[in-house]
């Protein structure tokens, strides 16, 4: 893919369209090499601003797509050419499942709960007949030992998966996507809440809120206890980082 990139905060983003992002993932998934992809938003930029380790996870050769309207607004204010446009994780998730069918792509779902994964697997099979989901796994909600991670990698390898979708929450999922891509010849994609949205266990924001960049407000209303610190403090940190010299 011929692409260009732009910096927002300390993250280098791919300047892409939703369709070209989907095509790129489908293409590299057939190449048999490790790669890690991240759907990064304002919260991601804020976290990267304060953590050198996290910046390292998202540094090249990571592929970062701007999953959030504020990234595009900053890009426009800074006069980027090409301007960064939003690539929404939940839609990219569905698009790759859809368009990957023509190539027989093999998918592995890692994260969330067994209940969500069961509902998700059924929904993806209903929406996209012929899709190949070769494995699902809900890891414990704790740090895994080195031996447990090796066992997990072995299970993924045995399925011959080409894409591993990682839904473990930010920033844990980004770290895990990088680790998996370094251990296995797969494309590991940190995909956020896409599992819940596609499974129907979490409602998406109304289209008008998404279109004007207020999806975060809807999510805050739905999950105030879990998300209020992220948005109250994270948005301030994002603005500071977005208009500062990138940290590398």
Summary keywords:
six-stranded parallel sheet, 248 residues
What percentage of residues falls in helices of 4 or more residues? 40-55%
* Uncertain stretches of 5 or more adjacent residues: none
Total E-strand runs:
8
Q: What number of structural domains do the residues give?
A: 1
Q: Can you describe this structure?
A:
The chain has 248 residues and is an alpha/beta fold. The protein has one domain (11-242). It is built from twelve helices and eight strands. The strands form two sheets. The protein has a six-stranded parallel sheet with strand order 4-3-8-7-5-6, with helices on both faces. Helix 2 crosses helix 3 (52-58) and helix 11 (215-222) packs antiparallel against helix 12 (224-242). The longest helix is centred in the last third of the chain and has 19 residues, at 224-242. The protein is globular and about 45 Å long.
Summarize the structure.
The protein is 51% helix and 17% strand. It has twelve helices and eight strands.
């Amino acid at each position: 893919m011929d692409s260009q990139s732009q910096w927002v905060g300390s993250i280098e983003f791919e300047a892409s369209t939703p369709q070209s992002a989907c095509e790129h993932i489908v293409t590299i998934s057939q190449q048999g090499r490790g790669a890690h992809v991240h759907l990064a938003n304002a919260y991601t930029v804020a976290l990267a601003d304060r953590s050198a380790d996290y910046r390292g996870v998202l540094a090249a050769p990571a592929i970062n797509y701007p999953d959030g309207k504020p990234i595009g607004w900053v890009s426009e204010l800074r006069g980027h050419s090409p301007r960064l446009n939003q690539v929404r994780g939940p839609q990219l998730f569905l698009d790759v499942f859809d368009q990957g069918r023509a190539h027989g792509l093999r998918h592995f779902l890692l994260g969330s709960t067994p209940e969500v994964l069961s509902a998700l697997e059924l929904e993806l099979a209903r929406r996209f007949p012929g899709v190949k989901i070769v494995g699902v796994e809900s890891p414990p909600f704790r740090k895994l030992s080195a031996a447990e991670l090796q066992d997990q990698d072995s299970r993924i390898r045995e399925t011959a998966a080409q894409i591993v979708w990682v839904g473990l929450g930010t920033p844990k999922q980004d770290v895990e996507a990088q680790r998996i891509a370094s251990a296995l010849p797969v494309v590991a994609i940190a995909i956020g809440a896409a599992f819940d949205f596609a499974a129907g266990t979490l409602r998406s924001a109304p289209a008008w809120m998404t279109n004007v960049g207020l999806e975060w407000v809807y999510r805050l209303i739905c999950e105030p206890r879990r998300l209020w610190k992220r948005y109250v403090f994270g948005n301030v940190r994002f603005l500071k980082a977005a208009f500062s010299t990138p940290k590398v």
